């Protein structure tokens, strides 16, 4: 039986000096519980009481660090309807974000707001003129269409940097411990990083240092604007894009990039992998046959870092795999997403030794079901309903029948679990 004491150890971050009460992080999951209006962007993105209830629940689950779902920095560039937004052209919703921070921090978790811009990865139903690094269109996937993006001008890139910094400053005022920049999974920051989506010939394209410029400028501007060294900055990165041969961000580039992030004063790098485009097309080359999909990369990354802490996310289900990952020194922090929608108090039980692994759901192998199930459980928790138990085959068949009437689903961050998914 795994001795979970190691998971209960506090982690102090090198630059902010903030301390997480234990080694477990709830990774970002798009909640889609903010307001949305299709015709009036001014009525979008306000946190609702359902969103706050969701975080009240997770707050009591003994989680060391809670990362929110992706909060968008531009009201007309959303990953999905119902995203929370902080856009200086809207109300800052400061009181709502204060309530959210209060709820999530009630039992001593550190709370990070994940900031993102979808770039070209915005469904055409939300944005017909998206912006990106270059004019490379996202292929349609599972019935979701995307428009051809326009490359951002240098001035517009400056505006994006300012927007990230503004959103971070609102979260700082609201009482968040820090932000996480979403630079994984094919969103705008990742579109700049990847030579597949960035073919620019200016200072923001070409060598890795140029492709990383937007991310590095954003980090510098957040530090300058917030002007408080105790405000944490985390970045979510792909360990690689799993596009062969030699396309997208490679493993060596990710290692170099992580070293740049350490120099930039990033406290925590969360390791994920893959992009929506390739994952949904079922072309990812990763091997997801075991827990902790990206742990081998973390092992190769660790010797290159002196300060920045690492969180590996994707696939953790058993206490023994979590303990093993920490004891082998592969990671400082264990990132967990889907198990916490089925069992918000899983970590309490694991830390107490009352439980050895997360509940196993009875869905067939298609990840689309697993993801839709997590989304639906998020809505249930937010609404104060009982959480559907998908370890019960009857609930699973009922859910699948309902889902099949609703597909194709909207494009969303929910496609990113790090596992191979298949077109339906
Ligand atoms: C419903 C759902 C929503 C997600 N939304 C986000 C998101 O907003 N930002 C993000 O970085 N990752 C998002 N992810 C990916 C998770 O953070 C995590 O990387 C992935 O689920 C693998 O971890 P797991 O195996 O513990 O679920 C989402 C995943 C799910 C299932």
TrEMBL record:
InterPro entries tied to this protein: Aldolase_TIM, NADH_flavin_oxidoreductase, OxRdtase_FMN_N
Annotated NADH:flavin oxidoreductase/NADH oxidase N-terminal domain residues: 15-351
Highest taxon of source: Eukaryota
GO MF assignments: FMN binding; oxidoreductase activity
Entry keyword annotation includes Membrane: no
Keywords of this entry: Flavoprotein, FMN, Oxidoreductase
Family stated for the protein in its record: Belongs to the NADH:flavin oxidoreductase/NADH oxidase family.
Protein name: NADH:flavin oxidoreductase/NADH oxidase N-terminal domain-containing protein
Biological source species: Pisolithus tinctorius Marx 270
């Amino acid at each position: 039986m795994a001795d979970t004491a190691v998971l209960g150890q506090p982690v102090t971050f090198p630059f902010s000096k903030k301390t997480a009460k234990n080694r477990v992080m709830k990774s970002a999951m798009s909640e889609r519980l903010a307001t949305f209006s299709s015709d009036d962007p001014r009525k979008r993105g306000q946190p609702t009481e359902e969103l706050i209830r969701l975080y009240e629940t997770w707050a009591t689950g003994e989680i060391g660090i809670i990362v929110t779902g992706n909060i968008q920095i531009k009201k007309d560039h959303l990953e999905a309807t119902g995203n929370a937004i902080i856009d200086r052209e809207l109300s800052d919703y400061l009181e709502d974000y204060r309530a959210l921070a209060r709820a999530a921090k009630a039992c001593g978790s550190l709370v990070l707001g994940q900031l993102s811009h979808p770039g070209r990865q915005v469904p055409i139903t939300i944005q017909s003129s998206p912006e990106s690094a270059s004019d490379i269109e996202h292929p349609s996937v599972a019935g979701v269409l995307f428009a051809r993006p326009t490359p951002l001008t240098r001035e517009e890139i400056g505006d994006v940097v300012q927007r990230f910094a503004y959103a971070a400053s609102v979260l700082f005022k609201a009482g968040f411990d820090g932000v996480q920049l979403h630079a994984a999974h094919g969103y705008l920051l990742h579109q700049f990083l990847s030579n597949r989506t960035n073919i620019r010939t200016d200072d923001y394209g070409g060598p890795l240092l140029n492709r990383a410029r937007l991310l590095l400028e954003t980090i510098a501007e957040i530090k300058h604007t917030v002007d408080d060294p105790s405000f944490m900055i985390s970045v979510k990165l792909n360990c690689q894009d799993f596009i062969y041969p030699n396309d997208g961000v490679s493993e060596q580039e990710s290692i170099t990039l992580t070293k740049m992030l350490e120099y930039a004063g990033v406290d925590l790098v969360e390791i994920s992998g893959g992009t929506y485009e390739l994952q949904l097309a079922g072309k990812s080359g990763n091997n997801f046959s075991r827990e902790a999909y990206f742990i081998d990369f973390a092992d190769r990354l660790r010797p290159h870092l002196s300060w920045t802490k690492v969180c590996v996310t994707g696939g953790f289900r058993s206490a023994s795999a979590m303990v093993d990952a920490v004891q082998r020194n592969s990671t400082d922090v264990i990132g967990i997403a889907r198990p916490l929608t089925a069992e918000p108090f899983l970590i309490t039980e694991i830390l107490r030794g009352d439980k050895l692994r997360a509940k196993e759901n009875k869905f067939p192998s298609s990840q689309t079901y697993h993801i839709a199930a997590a989304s639906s459980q998020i809505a249930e928790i937010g609404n104060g309903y009982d959480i559907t138990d998908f370890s019960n085959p009857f609930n699973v068949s009922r859910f699948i029948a309902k889902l099949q009437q609703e597909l194709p689903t909207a494009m969303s961050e929910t496609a990113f679990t790090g596992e191979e998914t298949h077109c339906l």
